[in-house]
Structures are given as C-alpha cells and as structure tokens.
C-alpha cells in the first residue's frame, strides 16, 4: 500500500535505528551501561539509536519539534508538528538479552497524534498507522480482538519496580482484575503492549505514569485498529498524564470499570 511522505520517513528511520540496535543486541554483554536511576538504565545503544532517529527525522523535516526520552525537547519552527520518540522502549529487556523491545515514533499535529510506528526489530515486526488509513503490521491489516467476555480475555500492564510509590495502586488493579479474566502479562515494553492490543494479541492494556514517548505511537495504532484509548483518569490529557487504558471496543467499559474501581 502507499504511505504518506511522513510515514515513509518514519519507517525508514525506524529500520535504520533498528539495524543499529540489533547489532548491539547481539553483543549485549559487552555494552557499557550507565545508570540513570533505580531500575532505569541507559546504554550506548539507546543513545546511538536516538541519534540516528534524530538525524533521519529532523533531517527530513527540520522545522518540526522534537520530544524524546534521552534528548529532551526541541521547539521547531513549525509549532504545530512534533516528533515524539522513544529510541528503545524495553531497555531493561534489551540489557538482559530478552528480545522484547521496540522503537516508537509518533507524529503530533496540532495536539493530535496523526501517525505512529512501533518497530520490534528483534522480530522484524513493524506496527504502523496513519489517521484514517487503518493500522498494519508489516503487510497485514490489524484489527483488535473480537472477544467480549472478560473471563476469556488477557490483559497487559506494567508493574512498578524499584520502590515506585504507585505499586499499591497496581496491586489493587490486579486484585480486582485477576479473578475475572484469563490472565495478565507484564512484558516490560509499553509500546509493544499497545501494539499487541491493536493486533488482537491482548484484549487490553493499562499502566500509570508513563511518558508521552511511551504511548504516542501506540494511541493511533490502537485507534486505527478499531480499539479505544483513554487516559486512566477520565477527561485527563493522555500524553500529559501518561496514565493510559485501552482495549477493544466490546470489552472496554467492563475492563475500565475493573481498573478504575
């Protein structure tokens, strides 16, 4: 299928950064790693991937703004458009040799995410979407799961680590959800959790205190696959709060009631 110029730029950037990350992933034991905080690591591979993405994305669209995990924010000459980028979502998995991590690129226009790419380079799965054009994984059209019964559904979340204060909230969520569903997965890469909801692999996903770069691309991919995405606190700004809930439309309300309490 034909993609827009901007989406083609995003795909090219993701693949180039993905090649760099895969090369480093094969030598993960030799990476020099610095520590940003408890349970939050940054590697040379992460920084190199962000540099590639910045060169590709801002090189092609130098007037756009920029927001990324490592490099912070840059105001562009065009105040209506901004790249929102996570060069390596699932860093801890990467550093432990677990092949479950991704590059996430969202394009924001006038406060709305209009295109998104999530690239699982280890498995060569490229999830992508543009507003009004549907969602895809490589050459396959994506649709959210059609399941309607909670007891047949599996969900994904992130469990806080390293003494984060939101652990009790998540444990409360699990206490309400686990008795009424088929299981909960914690795979450590929020962007891929959202991509998997879009692909129908999970029925839903929720997590608190993420960042805009974790969820920007996932929001449009889930929506274009037919799912619903909201801030965990109804009416809040999703990208500002970073607390998200998403699911297929048939099960969203029941799932949201279980999580929101």
Query: Mind telling me the C-alpha Rg?
Result: 17 Å
Strand content: 25-35%
| Name of the CATH class of the largest domain | Alpha Beta
- Biggest sheet: strands, sense, closure? 8 strands, mixed
Spatially, the strands of the biggest sheet line up as 4-3-5-6-7-8-9-10
Envelope shape: globular
The fold-level CATH name of the largest domain is Fructose-1,6-Bisphosphatase, Chain A, domain 1
Low-confidence regions: 37-41
E-strand count: 15
Fourth-tier CATH superfamily name of the largest domain:
Fructose-1,6-Bisphosphatase, subunit A, domain 1
- Give the ordered list of helices and strands: HEEHEEEHEEEEEEHEHEHEHEH
Q: What proportion of the residues is helical, as a percent range?
A: 25-40%
How widely separated are the two ends? 43 Å
Annotation field: number of helices = 8
The chain-level mean pLDDT equals 92
Structural class: alpha+beta
Gross CATH architecture of the largest domain: 2-Layer Sandwich
Domain count: the total is 2
Description of the molecule:
- Keywords: Hydrolase, Magnesium, Metal-binding.
- It comes from Pontibaca methylaminivorans.
- GO terms for molecular function: inositol monophosphate 1-phosphatase activity; metal ion binding.
- The protein has 261 residues and is of the alpha+beta class.
- 34% of the residues lie in helices and 28% in strands.
- The protein has 2 domains: 137 residues, Fructose-1,6-Bisphosphatase, Chain A, domain 1; 111 residues, 3-Layer(aba) Sandwich (D-Maltodextrin-Binding Protein, domain 2).
- The strands form 3 sheets. Strands 4-3-5-6-7-8-9-10 form an 8-stranded mixed β-sheet, with helices on both faces. It has a 5-stranded mixed β-sheet with strand order 12-11-13-15-14, sandwiched between helices. A two-stranded antiparallel sheet has the order 1-2.
- A hairpin with a 2-residue loop joins strand 1 and strand 2.
- The radius of gyration is 17 Å and the shape is globular.
- 45% of the residues are buried.
């Amino acid at each position: 299928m034909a993609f827009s110029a901007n989406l083609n730029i995003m795909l090219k950037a993701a693949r180039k950064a993905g090649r760099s990350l895969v090369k480093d992933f094969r030598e993960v034991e030799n990476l020099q790693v610095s520590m940003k905080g408890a349970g939050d690591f940054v590697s040379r591979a992460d920084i190199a991937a962000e540099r590639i993405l910045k060169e590709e994305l801002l090189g092609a669209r130098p007037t756009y703004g920029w927001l990324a995990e490592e490099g912070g924010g840059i105001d562009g000459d065009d105040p209506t458009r901004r790249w929102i980028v996570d060069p390596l979502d699932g860093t801890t998995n990467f550093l432990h040799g677990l092949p479950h991590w991704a590059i996430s690129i969202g394009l924001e226009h006038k406060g709305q995410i209009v295109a998104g790419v999530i690239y699982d380079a280890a498995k060569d799965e490229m999830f992508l979407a543009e507003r009004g054009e549907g969602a895809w994984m490589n050459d396959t059209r994506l649709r959210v799961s059609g399941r309607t019964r909670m007891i047949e559904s599996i969900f994904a979340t992130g469990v806080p680590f390293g003494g984060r204060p939101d652990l009790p909230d998540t444990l409360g969520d699990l206490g309400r959800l686990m008795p009424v569903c088929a299981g909960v997965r914690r795979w450590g890469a929020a962007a891929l959790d959202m991509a998997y909801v879009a692909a129908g692999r999970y029925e839903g996903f929720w997590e608190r205190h993420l960042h805009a770069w974790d969820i920007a691309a996932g929001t449009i991919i889930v929506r274009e696959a037919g799912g619903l995405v909201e801030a965990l606190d109804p009416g809040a700004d999703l990208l500002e709060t970073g607390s998200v809930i998403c699911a297929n439309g048939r099960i969203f309300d029941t799932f949201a009631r279980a999580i929101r309490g």
